[in-house]
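Weekly structure sync - notes
Attendees: PM, LS, DV (DV joined late)
Agenda: review two folding runs queued last week.

Item 1: First target. Sequence and C-alpha cells pasted below for the record.
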Amino acid sequence: MNYLSLFTLLLTLSFSTVTAQDEAASEILTKWKNAAQYTINLIDSMPAEHFDFKPTPEIKSFSEQVTHIVDNMTWLSNSYLGAEKFEKQEPTTKAEHIEYMRKACAYAGQAMEAALKNPDLLKTEQKFFAGPMTGRQIVRLMHDHVTHHRGQLIIYLRLKGIKPPKYFGW
C-alpha cells in the first residue's frame, strides 16, 4: 500500500469516528431534551394542592421528589461535568417547581453538551462516592437517576387518580 492510500484510509477512518461520536452526542442530547419536557409535563399534571402528597410518611412528597431530581442533576453537572455553580432555590408553588425544573434541565443539558465535546472528560475516571466513574458514566447516571425518580412521580400521580401524560422521551 502506498503512502497516499494509507493516508486516505486513516483520514477516512478518523472522519468516520468523529461523525459517529457527533451522532451519538446528538442522540443523547435529543433524548435529554425530550425527557426533560416529559418530566415537566408530569410535574404540571399534578394539581398544586397535591404537591405535598406523600404515599407513606417515610418517603418524599411529590414536591420533594421534584427538588431531589433538580438537586442531583445540578450537583452532577457542577461536580463532575465541569459546569459552573447552579443557583439552588427552594420552590414553594407549582409554577416555581416547574420553572426550577426547566432551568435545571437546561443547565444540565448544557453541561452534558460541553462534556460530550470533551473526550478527556468522558474517559477520565473521577472519584465518586460509589466508586470511580468517567464523565461518560456520569452522563448515563444523570439520565438514569432522573428516569428513576420520574417513575416515582408517575406513581404519585396514579395514586391521586391522575393519568400521566403520554410518554415521548425518545
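Item 2: Second target, run right after the first with the same settings.
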Amino acid sequence: MDGLQKLLANLQLYYTNLRSFHWNVKGVEFYGLYTKLEEFYDDAAEKVDEVAERILMLGGVPAHNYTEYLKTSSIKETGVVSNAKEIGKNLLDSLKVLISLEGKVLATASEGNDEGTVVLMSDFISAQEKNVWMLTAFLS
C-alpha cells in the first residue's frame, strides 16, 4: 500500500507539472507539444484515478492533499518552463521516476499475489516506456 501511496503522490506532481508545461510552452514546437502535453496530462489524470481506486480496493485511503504529496513525492514542482527541450527533459526524468516506482510496486504485488495491481503496473510501465523512447528521440 505504501508503494501505491508514493506512486499516487508522484503522479499528482507529474500531472501538475504537465499542466504548467501545457500552459506555458513557447517556440517553434508549440503546436505539436501543446497538443502532446494535453494527451500526457489526460493520461496522467486517468492514472491518478486508477491508483487511488486501487488503494481503495485494497482497503486503504488514498492521500488526497498536496501537503502530503509534496512530502512523499520524488518528483518536485517546477517553476514556469516554456522551452520545449527543457520540458522534454523534465518529462523524461519524471517518467523514469514513475517507471522505477511502478516496477517496485509490481514486484511487491507479484510477491503478494495481487494480480490486479500487477496488471495495472504492467500496463502503466508499457505505455510509459514508449513515451520514454519518443521523448529520447525528441531530445536527440
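Discussion on item 2: The radius of gyration is 15 Å.
Action: LS to circulate a short write-up before next sync.
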